[in-house]
Amino acid sequence: MTTTDKDRVLIFDTTLRDGEQSPGATMTHAEKLEIAQLLDEMGVDIIEAGFPIASEGDFEAVSDIAKASDKAVICGLARANFKDIDRCWEAVRHARRPRIHTFIGTSPLHRAIPNLTMDEMADRIHETVTHARNLCDNVQWSPMDATRTEWDYLRRVVEIAIRAGATTINIPDTVGYTAPVESADLIRRLIAEVPGADEVIFATHCHNDLGMATANALAAVAGGARQIECTINGLGERAGNTALEEVVMALKVRHDIMPWTTGVDTTKIMNISRRVASVSGFAVQFNKAIVGKNAFAHESGIHQDGMLKNAETFEIMRPEDVGLSATNLVMGKHSGRAALRSKLRDLGYELADNQLNDVFVRFKALADRKKEVFDDDLVALMRDASTDHAADRLQVKFLRVICGTEAPQSADLTLTVDGVDRQVTATGDGPVDATFNAVKKAFPHDVSLQLYQVHAVTEGTDAQATVSVRMEEEGRIATGQAADTDTVVASAKAYVAALNRLLVRREKTGSDAKEVSYKDAG
Ligand code: KIV
Ligand code: ZN
Predict the structure, then answer these.
(1) Are the beta carbons of 24 and 501 closer than 8 angstroms?
(2) pLDDT in tens, 55-75
(3) Ligand 2 centre from 19 Cα, in Å?
(4) CA atoms of 134 and 93, how far apart (whole Å)
(5) Which of 44, 147, 326, 486 is most open to solvent, judged by the fewest CB atoms within 10 Å of its CB?
């Protein structure tokens, strides 16, 4: 089967907008830039970099991503008003290929929020899309909650948006309500019945509330959509969005029945998946399709036997296709610099000599504590190494915890605060609670702990633990992660990392706190 343009599906990644907007998934400016660069490098066609009007931080992120962009179109989100659209344009206009994405909720429930009649909303759509198009020749328009919008009204407003100059019409299944047959049908009918539909690209934007986001997106493509909106690891509000890795791999593996192609280099999937999990603090579930830890693991005897004889018995795609190294070559304390560099390259990390020296020291320290160092250990180590601790106000200098069957447990902690050591002892209900109480005693603060999560990086009692902590203070959210063979030490470091980030945000007088939400759709 030959591939022509009509078979090309554009991949629109919204990890940095719809994904980042999910509670707790906030990323720092530097992290957003890094993820955008990885998306551009992997061949994503359009990157939705943020919602510029939402906060000063969002604006700066979108405009810096636009400035640094290479091949991808850089898109920003704007509600249906001139102020949002102007702000969005100010941020994306620096891109080589900018796009404004403007939207309004068109279903009865959403129309009731700005309290507009159908006609008033239709006028608003005409005015705002025209305004966006006067600024930028690449305009996407979305009727939010399209799948619960009355058919006649949806058809009418899509036509208005096309006449006003929209170049892409996105059909969001905002609440994950549709099903594959309906998803395909809706796009097919719009293309068939809306005048001018053949001059624009139809996009599909699915949420996963019923676990059908991937199926719905692929069905929409069968119905004629040529842009899929998705996020890495399916990150997103509630049950998340369509997962990029799932649609891209489904189109690749089942090209026989879904003859459409994307421009994504699939070998870059694992690396970006790990980075997004790490910076968002949303770990990937073990049995998640494509990127879960167990997605290519074969444990049962029958499976292992079959795999040894012929990998295709139980594998429909090769681990290498998604960027997993074929062999999990185990490293240890006798492994040298060259082996480490080559291993890290396989895992997607290209290091300059000075960076390698630093990582090698950390690797040796880990190998001294742990007999075998696996790929996942190195990924955890790289995550720690990529965090710049130089500017941290708080640092864990010493920690000793006394545990036993009798409560309370106690923690002796030395916390360096702005260069000065503070020694404290605190008790708590368990070693982690005692440790967190000790941090609070050494550096009094009043934040709410929203998440505390521990993952064993590998198997075995000497496994490293990766700890994620999310905390909140007056609407500002910060996450921290750390890995260590000692779970309590990892917990203390993760807690302090989150606290350091919160302090930075506090100093920036709340510039990261979202001032508006995209749900204030008026
Ligand atoms: O889910 C949704 O409807 C959205 C729109 C803003 C496109 O994310
Ligand atoms: Zn969405």
Answers:
(1) no
(2) 999 999 999 999 999 999 999
(3) 8
(4) 13
(5) 326
In 3D, which of 337, 342, 339 has the Cα closest to residue 354? 337
CB 431 within 8 A of CB 401: yes
Q: In sequence order, what DSSP letters do the residues of 27-56 get, joined into one string?
A: --HHHHHHHHHHHHHHT-SEEEEE-GGG-H
For 203, 412, 432, the CA distances from 408, given in Å and listed in that order, are 57, 13, 11
C-alpha–C-alpha distance, residues 250 and 346, integer Å: 24
Q: If you ran DSSP here, which 8-state letter would residue 285 be given? A: P
* Residue range(s) occupied by CATH 3.20.20.70 in the chain: 10-280
Fold exhibited by the domain 10-280? TIM Barrel (3.20.20)
Give the three-class secondary structure for 509: coil
Q: Which of 13, 18, 148 to mutate to test the pocket of ligand 1 (most atoms within 8 A of CB)?
A: 18
Does domain 394-507 correspond to CATH entry 3.30.160.270? yes
The string of pLDDT tens digits covering residues 105-137 is 999 999 999 889 999 999 999 999 999 999 999
3-state helix, strand, coil in the chain (%, to 5): 45, 20, 35
Q: How far is the CA of 172 from the centre of ligand 1 (A)?
A: 6
Parts of the chain belonging to CATH 3.30.160.270: 394-507
d(CA 500, CA 395): 9
Q: Roughly how many angstroms between the first and final C-alpha of the chain, as a whole number?
A: 46
Establish whether residue 172 lines the binding site of ligand 1, counting it when its CB lies within 6 angstroms of any ligand atom. yes
pTM exceeds cut of 0.85: no
Q: Is the pLDDT of residue 3 over 70?
A: no
**Predicted confidence (pLDDT) per residue in 437-466, tens digit:** 999 999 999 898 988 988 887 777 778 888
